[in-house]
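Sharing a chain and its predicted structure for anyone who wants a worked example. Both blocks are below, sequence first, tokens second.
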Amino acid sequence: MTDTRTEGLGAERLRERIAEELSRTRARTALLTDVVDDADLVRQHSPLMSPLVWDLAHVGNQEELWLVRDVGGRAPVRQDIDDLYDAFKQPRKDRPSLPLLPPGEARAYVSTVRQKVYDLLDRIRFTERPLVSDGFAFGMIVQHEQQHDETMLATHQLRSGPAVLTTPPPPEPRVRVAGEVLVPAGPFTMGTDTDPWALDNERPAHRVDLPAYAIDAAPVTNGQYRQFIAEGGYDDPRWWSTAGWAHRVEARLTAPMHWRRDGDGWAYRRFGRWAPVRDDEPVVHVCWHEAQAYATWAGKRLPTEAEWEKAARWDPATGRSRRYPWGDDDPTSAHANLGQRHLWPAPVGAYPDGASPLGVHQLIGDVWEWTSSTFRGYPGFTAFPYREYSEVFFGDDYRVLRGGSFGTDRAACRGTFRNWDFPIRRQIFSGFRCARDASPEESRP
């Protein structure tokens, strides 16, 4: 979004902005679903993922539930399909066997729902009711659809057959980025109270005081990860946690997902095309256990979620937390690799305009970054508008990822945005960077 903060903007301007976001998001959904035939849409390409046609109708069903029925108070469009597209009632592995809407009917359904939403948007009053204040419900639906678009993009990465997606390559490096950045001890503001479209798990803003630490200036690259492989990282249980080693053995992990040996090197399958692994790109498609093992092998650790956010948002000159590493303005193509503009991570050094004040690069976009933190609510957390968005996932089962990927849209990515997944997952666009405690010498003011 160009700006979802609505101070000084009238209701008409907010309506225009919402309409733009809805239209832009639906165009991406159409691209991901129209690029394959109907047989491909109904096929399940992995038990970890839904058929693309399920995601398509699901985003329409959520839009109907929240905007048409709840906000708009309109009669249901297709109440008979609510259970079919309830993500909690229908596990992904079972969705192909459900009586899903066929592709043509699914497209007609989401189109009908969208037209009703546009009609609603023409007459909505943005009152103080939390669900409609600042257009929150519309922003929630935009973000929900964009999240499913990224999920569908991950499904495309898993599908077999000829390549169907194409984009230009990401930009080449503009600066050299290496080493670590020292983050001094002290407090910062984590989370947000001011971003009107921020989701419940990003709230409330709260003070966190951290000791000094060092964090990698860039995500771990393919070249660095290849060294871990070459030195027997997957064969030595010393680097792995007990659970991580058990998973490595059971899943027979030997390299990042989608890698294969290519002579003396490695190749990586990107959306149906094989290409040599490029050493200066951030490694992608690694699970949390792999990231943790690499960090231990390197003599470091994964950053905590708070450490990641301080490195990404804290401005030492003012002491305030920015919305993004570069400031409060929304991302442009000069700041970050976002929005499926490119189909793989950009090499390190490609986005100097997106660096944080401390000089930490590519915190937004390219790869979701695993942190060491489990997923929990912040102090004072309140579920809104429903427990199933965040609260039911709190606990030790999930690890937090930050920063977004090349497949994440700008509407669903900011310095406070939190993602989470099981530590064994790697079909997502996941990478990482390392951190370590600062030495006593480094910690002195």
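Comments welcome. Residues 323 and 415 are 5 Å apart (CA to CA).
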